[in-house]
Amino acid sequence: MDRRPVRRLKPDPGAPPHPADLWPATVPAVAQILREGLELGPGATVLVGENGSGKSTVLEVFAAALGLNPEGGSAGARHVTRASEPGSLDLIVERSPGGNRWAYFLRDETLHGLYSYLEENRNEHRPDPLFHELSHGEAFLTLLGDRARGAGLYVLDEPDAALSFTATLSLVALIGDLTARGAQVVLATHSPVLAALPGARLLEVGAWGLREARWADLELTASWRQFLDDPRSFLRHLQ
Fold it and tell me: What is the pTM of this model?
């Protein structure tokens, strides 16, 4: 039986069309989803692409369609700094009957506000750690590990920004454990380590929209491989 928490993100045929010349429909990946929707398979889906390609915007739209707090957290989180997200764009989330409805959204750029909110609303019977007293990476892994409740859906926007190489490997192991228990994970990353998640579906984001890719063929992978092999071949052009 198909128990994916989410099967598909699809346009609402009854909603008015979004103007193609207005953000975020000007982002090719978003425009593609508004036309075609996005199938979400089991396990992990990893979005890779350059800054400005639309990875984070896609995740923000997805999180809004799920009803999650746009600055991170669950559907019940109530914190906001400056509203700048695109909203759900009237997209419909198609769920599996009987699928786990738990979902959580983590965005690197808004973690400070989320940590403050969680500390200010600590449950005295099950208090969260004081996240601001931990390092950036420690706080991120602690929070995700605590909220990872098995077969739910986890949306992670650039989690690698918080993590060292070793900590990134710890995140790979955590995601592998989650997906083995039936969870779905959708993440955007600049890390070739996270992009190498075993069994993950890779979507390369760019001027073409969203396209399936193999890890070995990613521009991300090629660039890091070339840099680590010969840093001077890149650095000499910056002088």
Answer: 0.91
- Ordered domains of the chain (ranges, CATH): 6-213 (3.40.50)
10, 18, 205 from 35: Cα distances, Å: 8, 10, 16
- Tell me the per-residue pLDDT of 97-131, one tens digit each, with 9 for 90 and over: 877 888 999 998 888 888 888 888 887 767 788 88
- The answer to whether the beta carbons of residues 204 and 213 sit under 8 Å apart is yes
CB of 59 closer than 8 Å to CB of 89:
no
* 184-189 sheet: strands from edge to edge: 103-107, 153-157, 184-189, 43-48, 201-206, 209-213
Contact at 8 Å (CB) between 38 and 128? no
Residue 17 CA to residue 70 CA, distance in Å, equals: 22
Hey, is 105 helix, strand or coil?
Answer: strand
Q: How far apart are CA 79 and CA 103, in angstroms?
A: 17
The total number of residues written for the chain in this structure: 239
Sign of the alpha-carbon dihedral angle for 161, 162, 164, 166: negative
DSSP class of 73: B
Residue 124: Cβ within 10 Å count: 5
Q: What's the burial of 232, exposed, middle or buried (CB within 10 Å: 0-12/13-18/19+)?
A: exposed
